Amino acid sequence: MNEIYNIRKLESLKEYLNQRMVSPRLLNNPRIYEILDEISDEFSLIFLDEEMKKILDEQLLVEKDGTLRYLKDNKRVKIKRNPSGIETIKEAFDKKDSSVISEKRLFDNDGIEYLYEIREGNLNWEDFENNIDFIPSKKIRYTRDNTMLNFITKEEVGKFVVKEHVIQQVPYMLQNLKLSRKDLLRIGNSGTKIDDLCGFLTNSQAEFDTLKELFNEDKDKGQEEIFKTYCNYNKRFQLPTTYENAVAKRLGINIEMAR
């Protein structure tokens, strides 16, 4: 019952934003319900009645291009379209030292996250409140490989640029096709070659050989096995299958034959 109620609540919020002229690209992206759920939590939304709409009318700004923006509890959020899909930018202000931590995420039209960027810097509260950008003192960018979705490249941007590959266990990485700082800490750094990556994850030669075959970009079998493992993981633990079609499409796999 609670799940049904939540779906109805999010659908009502989606329709409200549609009437406010939020970009259709945002509202039709597979990520929209996740985004709406976060907005609902931010504003403690229970019922979208007239009183609640008045509050949202005041606090949710919709720009001419359909971008959605709001400031709430020392955090500013922007959700907008881009040529490949949508992007979300969340920036948190710390009044103790006027520091700002920004998380930027880019999702394609299938809801797959292909870039996650963390920026850190400083800004005074007045500029933060007025949506002024800041010059980052530190920037780390993670990008996903377009063909092998479990491969992530880490790039530290600053006085010098350092690039390295990091990897996570395939089912966990693909589960929601979204990265987070917590997830990335679990990944760790594991080298720049496929041999290094496989060695990092395995404990025997047999495991190493199997994993290397799965991660071999030149073999269709590897991608199919990754997809099967992903689907089995979802089924075994009764996890959402929302992005199975998107993963199959990206890897060029016939989803019915692979299952």
What layout of secondary structure does this protein have?
Layout: H1 2-19, H2 24-27, H3 32-42, H4 50-59, E1 60-62, E2 68-72, E3 75-82, E4 85-94, E5 99-108, E6 113-122, H5 125-129, E7 138-144, E8 151-157, E9 162-167, H6 170-175, H7 181-187, H8 194-201, H9 205-214, H10 220-236, H11 244-251, H12 255-258
Antiparallel strand pairs: 1-2, 2-3, 3-4, 4-5, 5-6, 6-7, 7-8, 8-9
Helix pairs in contact: 1-3, 8-9, 10-11
User: How many strand segments?
Assistant: 9
SSE ordering: HHHHEEEEEEHEEEHHHHHHH
| Mean pLDDT metric | 82
Structural class: alpha+beta
Straight-line N-to-C gap: 31 Å
What is Rg? 20 Å
Any idea what the shape is? Answer: globular
Assembly type of the shown chains? single chain
Unreliable stretches, pLDDT < 50, 5 or more residues?
none
Strand content of the residues, in percent? 25-35%
Q: Helical stretch count?
A: 12
Give helix % range.
40-55%
Query: What strand order characterises the main sheet?
Result: 1-2-3-4-5-6-7-8-9
Largest sheet: 9 strands, antiparallel
Q: How would you describe this structure to a colleague?
A:
This protein has 259 residues and is an alpha+beta fold. The chain has helices spanning 2-19, 24-27, 32-42, 50-59, 125-129, 170-175, 181-187, 194-201, 205-214, 220-236, 244-251, 255-258, and strands spanning 60-62, 68-72, 75-82, 85-94, 99-108, 113-122, 138-144, 151-157, 162-167. A 9-stranded antiparallel sheet has the order 1-2-3-4-5-6-7-8-9. β7 and β8 form a beta hairpin. α1 (2-19) crosses α3 (32-42). The radius of gyration is 20 Å and the shape is globular. The chain starts with a helix and ends with a helix. The mean pLDDT is 82.
